[in-house]
Amino acid sequence: MMRGGWLRAYALLYLVFLFAPILLLPLFAFNDASVIAFPLTGFTTHWFQELWTTEALHQALRNSLVIAVLNSLIATLLGVCAARATSGPAFPGKRGILGFIMLPLVLPEIVIAVSLLVVVRQVLDLQLSNVTVILAHVVISLPFSIAILNGAFANLDPAFEEAAQDLGETRWGAFRLVTLPLVFPGIISSLLICFIISLDDFVLAQFLTGANPTLPVYIYGLTRFVKSLPVIMALGTLLVALSITLLVIAEYFRRRGVARAGLKDSGGFL
Amino acid sequence: MSIFDRSPQARTAALLSPPFLYSLLLLALPLVAIVLISFWTQTGLDFDTTFTLANYRAIFTQPQYILGNAQNWGVIPVSLFVSATVTAITVVLAYPVAYFVSFVVDPSRKSLWLFLITIPFWSSYLIRVFLWKVILGFNGVINTGLQALGVIREPLEFLLYNLASVIITMAHAYAVFAILPIYVALEKIDRSLLEASQDLGESRFSTFLRVTLPLSVPGIVGAVLIVFIPTIGDYVTPQLMLGAGGRLVANTIQTQFFKGNDAPLGAALSIVTMLMVGIISLVFLFLNRRWLRGRS
Amino acid sequence: MNVQSKPPATPLIQLRGIHKHYGDYHALRGIDLEIRQGEFFSLLGPSGCGKTTLLRTIAGFEQPSSGQLVIDGKDMSGVPPNHRPTNMVFQSYAIFPHLTVAENVGFGLRRDPRPKEQRARAVAEALEMVGLGGYGNRAAHALSGGQRQRVALARALILKPKVLLLDEPLSALDKKLRENMQVELIRLQRNVGITFILVTHDQEEALVMSDRIAVMFEGAIGQMADPETLYRRPNSRRVAEFIGKMNLLPAEVGMEGNRIVVEVAGLGRGAVEPDQAPGGVIEGNSTVGIRPETLSLLFPGETTDRRVAEGVVDEVVYYGDMTYYDVRIPGVEEPLTISMKNLIGRPVLDVGTPTKVAWDERSLVVLSR
Ligand SMILES: Nc1ncnc2c1ncn2[C@@H]1O[C@H](COP(=O)(O)OP(=O)(O)OP(=O)(O)O)[C@@H](O)[C@H]1O
Ligand SMILES: [Mg+2]
Q1: Which residues of A have a CB under 8 Å from any CB of C?
Q2: The ABC transporter domain covers which part of the protein (chain C) (predicted)?
Q3: C47 CA from centroid of ligand 2 (Å)
Q4: ipTM > 0.90?
Q5: What is the largest CA-CA distance in chain C?
Q6: Which end of chain C, C or N, has fewer beta carbons within 10 A?
């Protein structure tokens, strides 16, 4: 029995629209023509081999990975603080502060980029480097981290930690033995999502990167050259595959967290 | 006083202070700085810090920013138009999908659907924009594909290097932002209300119009704002899709900070743009509230 | 004054002048309390009166704004919950969902120096004690409400606390299960001999289970007594109305020599003993209470040597074993509620039937406040 036949057809079509571009990636990444056009001409792994031998690309990738890892650690640590404060007792100004931290969700990225650039250069008088990129990435990752971790912390009965203390644990022991295991899946999700955000970000990196470009900045440089299009396709294939893998892992942990707390699953991220 | 004696409120406040300080330093301070700088003047690599309204005067008097001339609109109105169009398209296209997931999909499979919908959002934005360029281009996937199928002889030129291509690309990129708030609002609707409405003699369609749709308005409002506001700041899409020619305000801002080397003007442009977006959003919220009140 | 058995020289728990402020809100207003070793003590009161706050103050989760708390001879100020000889059964039970039943019960034994096998045996015994023998390996989140409650009990009792604190432990259970658990809790408390402090807003539960009850209103204790005294001799209107059904009648109270004389509206004049005015006597306009089951209707043909008032049946509510009659008596605004056992051969009267109400002076309580 097909329920909502037309709606279902429309929704499937919409999914096709959402996925169409990224489904084209592998198609042309393995196509042996140097222009991106139909019809496909033949199978090759040449473009991937070219990735393997491009030193500048490796440099950019290393850069991006370092930035992404540090970003996800810092953002998640701050996110844990904020999410725990969110579920804790209210004090004057708490809602305002939290709202302010979440502001980057609705700020155009270019405004964040431009204003950070001004501060880094004019006020703090720092050289642009990977550090400045990390600082910026934490600003935009933090709201996502908090949103994910809020879900994890909000599921907790405040009595859990009190019960642990009542049974002889210190405040820290209660956090470590009860809260941490219960929100751990959320922490993993947050780490992964912040990692992806950093790895994918182009705008902030373009403004704030130093002498060494990040991977997206490097890719952007490539897009100006027609002959490097197939290489971008190959690189894009790998990046999207990586994102999806991380995402699947993040989703797995999120669901496990929900199951662990003995709750009903009520939807995805955000 | 030991930590133990502190009240739970004080502990929460202490916990919140690291993220708060971070945001203060790297979000509030930058936003303040950009406001300040917009009243300054660029002199070579430095700033003349005497207060001036010259940047704002330029924005409100020179044709390329707001006023426009006989041939072209100003860059801000064009950008607002593009964002508004993207928003309208995205939200209208997204609503049925959100409705489908909330009302038709079996509860056990909802999170799978949501997961599928969010996947494209988490793959590199730059790559996705670039893909649309490849898809819509003169020798792109659509043209060569249609030619290979014999549907068309000559490439369709209207696909790339115009606002339509920007709008299509953005509508794709921000789809998730529209679906999720609407979905959340639909999920909150008490299903017994719909049964009550049908029990009272409404058809399924009129139930949708009279119950479901009004109750999902908060989700629609959320979707509108969360698409409209960020799209105005997107400069990657126009840059890749429009080439060197027509530009949107985000590109103009970006240029001021790089090639143009006039950071104060760029700052003033950012602020004017943000203010306009803010005002439009507030007016939208206000009208919406009036409309909701008028109904009840 | 209250009929109250004297506490021994050093009570297990002493609260002296405990106040608690939340900002402007005065949640506890000078609580004085002494609880004996081995006592089953209940805190009873309407929602928001501060029962949970008081319990959490004893457990150490709230710091009193002023006043002193002594447990087992030690002042508890500055002592964190993990160092207090108290354990708690939380209203939500707070069973850790990521642990098994046995891990939950053994949670507090982490610092126990005994070898592992002995601790495992202690866990098994504790589960046995609450009737969950063999459930140790179950996942905690797969338990029913009643089972959770047992796990919470075992988890707290395994640490052999001086005091077990229970915050509305039965309110999440359905009526049948609740009544079973009441009996089980009483039995458990007698077996282990540990002092129990139970918070409840259910007066029946408090009456059934407790050795003594403190009735709280708005952050202060209204009356503290054993269940029978509380029921028969409430010291104020509030307590009288909170516990069971009580007919309240306007009355004129006066002293004639040593005797307390009351002129009760509708019933007439009578004399009462001092214990019938537990809240003290204030001469003049006052209120007198009388329980429905201490009144009876005279059915046709019956006679009595008790005091009698004439009235008309106003409302009849049939409960199976009992029938509740509202009887209108000239001179009283509110009808009197009377409960009658449905004995064999006793008819149920119709509304509008003229009838007689029998009552006794010893059943009256003077409620000045
Ligand atoms: N952390 C807090 N901050 C501010 N006010 C509080 C706090 N905790 C409790 N209160 C207030 O103190 C009063 C007493 O609360 P408490 O939880 O002790 O009531 P209770 O008697 O247990 O009620 P219930 O039967 O509803 O559980 C309530 O009015 C409550 O709003
Ligand atoms: Mg309570």
Answers
A1: 157, 159-160, 162-171, 173, 177-178, 181-182, 260-262
A2: 13-243
A3: 7
A4: no
A5: 77
A6: N
Residue A101 host element (H or E): helix A94-101
CA of C42 to the centre of ligand 1 (A): 17
Cross-chain residue pair C111–A181, CB shorter than 8 Å: no
Neighbours of C126 (CB within 10 A): 24
The C-alpha atoms of residue C68 and residue C65 are separated, in whole angstroms, by 10
User: Candidates C18, C21, C31, C51: which one to mutate for ligand 1, based on the most atoms within 8 Å of Cβ?
Assistant: C51
Span C313-349, pLDDT tens digits: 999 999 888 999 999 998 888 899 999 998 887 888 8
Domains of chain C (ranges; CATH) run 11-232 (3.40.50.300), 245-369 (2.40.50.140)
Which two structure tokens, joined as six digits, stand for C27? Answer: 């949640």
Q: Measured between CB atoms, does B181 come within 8 Å of chain A?
A: no
Inter-chain residue contact C87 with A170, CB threshold 8 Å: no
Domain B31-295 -> CATH class: mainly alpha
Q: Give the ligand at the shortest distance from the Cα of B9.
A: 1
Sorted by where each begins, the domain ranges of chain A are 1-44, 55-260
H or E segment at C66? Answer: strand C66-71
Planar angle of CA C114, C119, C125, nearest 5 degrees: 135
The pTM is what?
A: 0.82
> Residue C234 pLDDT more than 80?
yes
Is the CB of C81 less than 8 angstroms away from the CB of A162?
yes
pLDDT in tens, A119-134: 888 777 888 889 999 9
* B120-165 pLDDT per residue, tens: 887 788 888 888 888 887 677 777 778 777 777 777 766 666 788 8
Angle B150-B152-B157 (CA atoms, 0-180°, nearest 5)? 145
Q: What is the DSSP letter of C316?
A: E
Domain extents for chain B?
A: 31-295
- Does the domain spanning A55-260 belong to CATH 3.100.10.20? no
Nearest residue (by CA) to ligand 1, atom 7, is C22
C80–B5 C-beta distance less than 8 A? no
CA distance C342 to C337: 16
